[in-house]
Each structure stands twice: as structure tokens, then as C-alpha cells.
Write a structure and sequence with these properties.
Elements: H1 2-11, H2 24-34, E1 38-44, H3 48-61, E2 67-73, H4 80-90, E3 94-98, H5 105-114, E4 120-123, H6 135-144, E5 149-153, H7 166-179, E6 195-198, H8 199-205, H9 216-223, E7 230-234, H10 249-264, H11 270-297, H12 301-322, H13 332-362, H14 367-389
Helix pairs in contact: 1-2, 3-4, 11-12, 12-13, 13-14
Bound molecules: guanosine-5'-diphosphate-alpha-D-mannose and manganese (II) ion (MN).
Length: 393
């Protein structure tokens, strides 16, 4: 196996040192002379108007090193991925990883890094807000110093955050303080999406990453088995010119999910926690609708209770779709079909709930405990079944 690969490599266009014997050594020699030293990972969603400019800037500032760029695009409707492939036809350092039916900044960065073979990996936004001219410096620091990761920071002394509004700056500051709950390091800008690390540092933590939401750096630090050695380099966060930010209010929720996963994820799946919180909110909706229909509008109790049940199930479904399963969000007809499977699953869950609770109650378990046991069984059932059938993608 190795032998034939080696022969193929040996006979291919670029000559390899003849002194090296055919075999594994040849594979090693030829690989080390051809692969890029640095992979720049660029997560993109609807960045068509920024891609070419970024490529040109990378070509300019990385002229001295062997590099490639991997755009990880989540099937942007503006066809960012196609544009990247078109550029790649003329320059084979420009690569595209297109993900279909998926969303998520962190998971895009992780998959991009895993698609590379380079010893050094950088992550930078595709909207030109990060200062790409810092990349050669980052690489030099990584090579020379005993450091695992170099981070571009917006908060180093004397730095101003040009690209952030006042409210964004305040939120960012608060999120930074919250991150101390899970971080094992005093980072000035743990929310940064701009950094470069050694492959080994990624490999040590890659299986423990949560890959939830936007904050890949927090995830990397919190998932590393031992504290990462880091260096921070200040840069000025630029204002976005083309396209728009995807960091909406739901990014706050995914950040909370990430922190929860890091804090309690080893005990209980964070999605189940989210699912249960949504379920709890469903009870509020149910009681509100019931009160409105039964006490105010004065329909029959049976009708009021039925409508309230459907209203709660629908709101639970819609909320889970945007919060708990945001990365697998259903739209259009898939949404409708998802609602059907969710409602059916929860219907069976309700039967299981009542069944278990009645069984326990009949066996002299206190009513409140029997009721809670029923709720727990119902919730676990609903979660398990809808994970498999409703948000199966
Ligand atoms: N593949 C993929 N999937 N890319 C995404 C997604 C997604 O779901 N959402 C956003 N992106 C890409 C954008 O296209 C952009 O290239 C980059 O991720 C950053 O997204 P923005 O929407 O521009 O985020 P921001 O400017 O508000 O915040 C960024 O900078 C902050 C400071 O460094 C993010 O990187 C934050 O995480 C970071 O804190
Ligand atoms: Mn941005």
C-alpha cells in the first residue's frame, strides 16, 4: 500500500530528492515539501462581496510563506461558495468547504481546521473586520516562542474598538466576565474570533469541543486538558463595509448554551436542559391560553384545555426549533412536517406521563412525586423521540 503510493509520488511531476529511498521516507519527504505550512480558516455566511478582497489581501500579506485558505461556507444563498470555487480554479491555495443544511460559526471553524493538513491553523472572519496583516506576525510568534496559540485582541492597552457600538461593547464586556466561569486563562478578549494555533493544541481538545454557537476560542480554552500557553497581539477591529453581522440576540442564547455545556454537560446534555426550559415556558403558555378561553371567553373546559394544549405544543415546537435545535433549524414545509412529528411524539409522551404517574400513585407513592415522575418520563421521551424524528438532519 505505502509502496505504491510512494512510487506514484516519486514519479509525479515535481522531482523529489533522489537520495531518499522509495518507501515511507519518500512519502514523508514529498509531503513535507508540498503541503502548506499555514491554513487560514474563514467561516462565511453571505459574504460574497468580501471574499475576493480578502483573498487579495491574504495573497499580499502572506507572500512570504506557504499557505492556503479554506472558506467554510454554510450554503449561503448569495452563492459565496461558488465564488470561492471560481477563485480556486485560478489559485489552488483557495479552497472551499461547503456545508449543506448546517449552520454555526464554531462548528464551521472546527471542520475547516480538520480539513487541513497544515501544522499551523488560523481563524479569521470573512468580512474584513479582523486585521489580516497580523497573520505573519502571529506565525512568527508561534514558530519562535513556546506558545500554543496567538490571539488577536481588541482590548489590549491603548486599543480602541472601532467596529463595535456602545451596546455591543458592553455586552462583549459582560460576556468576557462570564467566560471566566469556564476558562482556565486570563484572556483580555476571549470573545475574539481571530487567532492562530498549533495543530497539536487543536488535536488535544478537538474531541471535547462543544462546537456550539459563535465562541470557538472560549470553547478551545475550556476544552483543553491542560491550560493553553497563549500570546495576545493587539489589533484594531474594523467596521464592516459589505454584508451584515449574523451575531443576533440568539448568539447570546448559544453562548449561554456553550457555558452550560462546559459547566454541566458531562452530567446532563445541554440540549435536554434547553428542551426542558422551553417545556417549562410551555406550561406558562398553556395556563395563559386556558385562562383566556375558559374564564374570559367562557368556552367549555374541554375546548379550552384542548386549544391550550395545541397552543403550548406549537410554541414549544417553534421555540425548540430556534433555540434548542438552532443548528438544525427547520424551515418551510420541513417546519410543517416537523410540527406534525413533534405533536405526535408529545401526544404519546403525554400518555406515557399519565400512565407512569397513575401507576405510581396506585402503588401509594405520594401524589406530588408520582406527578413529577410522570413529567420526567414524558420529558425524556419527548426529547429522545423528537431528537431522532423531528430534528434528525
Ligand atoms: N460558516 C458559517 N456559518 N459562518 C458564519 C456563520 C455561520 O452560521 N455565522 C457567521 N459566520 C461568519 C460570517 O460570515 C463572518 O465571516 C464571521 O463568521 C463573523 O460573523 P459576523 O456576523 O461578522 O460576526 P461579528 O462581526 O458580529 O462578530 C465577530 O467578531 C467578534 C470579534 O472578534 C465574531 O467572530 C465573534 O465571534 C467575535 O467575537
Ligand atoms: Mn463581523
Amino acid at each position: 500500500m505505502v509502496d505504491t503510493t510512494a512510487k506514484k509520488l516519486a514519479s509525479s511531476a515535481t522531482p523529489i530528492s533522489p537520495a531518499v529511498p522509495i518507501g515511507q521516507e519518500v512519502v514523508k519527504a514529498s509531503l513535507s515539501s508540498r503541503g502548506p505550512e499555514l491554513s487560514v480558516i474563514v467561516p462565511t455566511f453571505k459574504e460574497r462581496d468580501n471574499v475576493l478582497e480578502l483573498v487579495e489581501r491574504l495573497q499580499k500579506c502572506l507572500a512570504g510563506c506557504s499557505w492556503e485558505v479554506i472558506f467554510v461556507d454554510d450554503d449561503s444563498p448569495d452563492e459565496t461558495a461558488q465564488l470561492v470555487r471560481d477563485i480556486g480554479k485560478r489559485d489552488n491555495r483557495i479552497r472551499c468547504l461547503q456545508r449543506i443544511g448546517r449552520r454555526g460559526l464554531s462548528s464551521a471553524c472546527v471542520e475547516g481546521m480538520l480539513a487541513s493538513s497544515a501544522p499551523y491553523l488560523a481563524v479569521i472572519d470573512g468580512d474584513l473586520q479582523h486585521d489580516e496583516t497580523l497573520l505573519p506576525k502571529m506565525l512568527a510568534v508561534l514558530k519562535e516562542e513556546q506558545t500554543d496559540i496567538v490571539i488577536g485582541t481588541r482590548y489590549a492597552p491603548g486599543n480602541r474598538i472601532g467596529g463595535l457600538s456602545h451596546s455591543r461593547a458592553a455586552i462583549s464586556h459582560f460576556a468576557t466576565r462570564l467566560s471566566r466561569l469556564v476558562l482556565k486563562a486570563e484572556l483580555s478578549d476571549p470573545m475574539s474570533g481571530f487567532f492562530m494555533l498549533r495543530r497539536e493544541a487543536l488535536e488535544r481538545s478537538v474531541r471535547k469541543l462543544s462546537s456550539i454557537g459563535f465562541k470557538i476560542l472560549v470553547d478551545l480554552f475550556a476544552s483543553s486538558p491542560h491550560p493553553l500557553k497563549f500570546t495576545e497581539l493587539p489589533y484594531e477591529f474594523r467596521t464592516r463595509k459589505a454584508g451584515e453581522s449574523k451575531l443576533d440576540t440568539q448568539a447570546v442564547w448559544s453562548y449561554v448554551m456553550l457555558l452550560m455545556d462546559k459547566l454541566i454537560g458531562h452530567i446532563i446534555p445541554v440540549r435536554f436542559v434547553a428542551f426542558s426550559l422551553v417545556g417549562g415556558f410551555g406550561v406558562v403558555i398553556h395556563l395563559a391560553v386556558l385562562t383566556l378561553l375558559f374564564s374570559v371567553v367562557e368556552t367549555s373546559f374541554m375546548t379550552a384545555q384542548s386549544i391550550a394544549t395545541f397552543a403550548a405544543m406549537t410554541s414549544n415546537f417553534a421555540l425548540n426549533n430556534v433555540l434548542t435545535y438552532r443548528d438544525k433549524r427547520l424551515r418551510g414545509w420541513q417546519w410543517v412536517w416537523g410540527w406534525v412529528t413533534f405533536t405526535l411524539a408529545c401526544g404519546v409522551g403525554a400518555l406515557a406521563n399519565v400512565g407512569i404517574a397513575s401507576y405510581l400513585f396506585a402503588r401509594d407513592i405520594r401524589w406530588i412525586l408520582a406527578g413529577l415522575a410522570g413529567i420526567l418520563v414524558g420529558a425524556v421521551w419527548n426529547y429522545a423521540v423528537t431528537t431522532v424524528y423531528t430534528w434528525k438532519k
